[in-house]
Amino acid sequence: MDSGIGYRFHPTDEELVNHYLRLKMLGYDDQVQEIPEVNLLDFEPWDLPHIEHPEAAIANNSNDQVWYFFCPRNYKYSNSNRAKRTTNAGYWKVTSKDRRINENGIKKTLVFYQGRPKGVKTNWVMHEYNPTFGFRTQRDLVLCKLKRRPDDADDVDDVPTQEEGGSSTMVASASGNNAADEDSSQLQAYMDSLGGINETDYNLNSAMQWPTNYYN
C-alpha cells in the first residue's frame, strides 16, 4: 500500500489537549490508544521511534518524522514541582517561550542536548503539552510530540504554525535553562487547574463535545 495514501494522524494543538490529553488523564485509555504511554526519560530520543506499540502505528508515523507519546510527569525531588529532564545520554532543555493553548493547556518547546553537564545541541525537538485543567482523580500526565529536524535545518527551535494551532499565545519569558522560570510556569498551570471542571459533572460525552464551539 502506498504510504502517501490513506489516513494521516496530524492533530492540532487544541485536539491534543482538549481531546487526547483530557481523556487519557480521566482514564479513557481505549479512546486514545493511538498514542502510547512511555516514560520518555527511560529512552534517548533516537530510540523512541522504534518502540513497538501496534495500536500506535498511525500516531507514530516514521515517514513524517513526528511521534506522539503520553508521559508521566517526572520530578527532580519528591517535594518539588521542578521537572526532571535528564536521560542517560543527555538532557532536554526548555527553549523559547511557553505558549498557551486556549485556556486549557501550556505548550513547552524542548531541545535535546547530548552529553552532560554541558551537552551538544541535537536536531531532536519535543513539544510538551501541560494541562491547566484539573480533576481530583486525574492521572499526572503530559502529552509529548517528538520531532527530528533535518540535518540542514537552520535552527531546531520551533515556531508556532497555523496547522499546529498557531493561534496559541506566548505566556512566559524565554526560560532556557532557568529553573525558577519553569517552576513559576508550572505553579501558574497548577493554580489555573484549580478552576477546572469538577469531574462529577464530567462524562465521556462531554469530553467529546468540550468546548461547545470546538468543532464549529
Task: Summarize this structure as a short list of keywords or feature phrases.
216 residues, alpha+beta, 6-stranded antiparallel beta sheet, 3 helices, 6 strands
Task: Please give a structural write-up.
The protein has 216 residues and is an alpha+beta fold. It is built from three helices and six strands, in the order H-E-E-E-E-E-E-H-H. The protein has helices at 13-25, 179-193, 204-209, and strands at 66-72, 90-101, 105-114, 120-131, 141-148, 169-170. Strands 1-5-4-3-2-6 form a six-stranded antiparallel beta sheet, sandwiched between helices. A hairpin with a 3-residue loop joins strand 2 and strand 3. It starts with 12 loop residues before the first helix and ends in a 7-residue tail after the last helix. Residues 156-166, 172-180 and 189-216 have low confidence and may be disordered.
Please outline the helices and strands.
Blueprint: H1 13-25, E1 66-72, E2 90-101, E3 105-114, E4 120-131, E5 141-148, E6 169-170, H2 179-193, H3 204-209
Antiparallel strand pairs: 1-5, 2-3, 2-6, 3-4, 4-5
In brief:
This protein is α+β, with helices and mostly antiparallel strands. The protein contains three helices and six strands.
Mean pLDDT: 75
E-strand count = 6
Strand percentage: 15-25%
Oligomeric state of this protein: single chain
**Outline:** globular
- Integer-rounded radius of gyration: 17 Å
The secondary structure category is alpha+beta
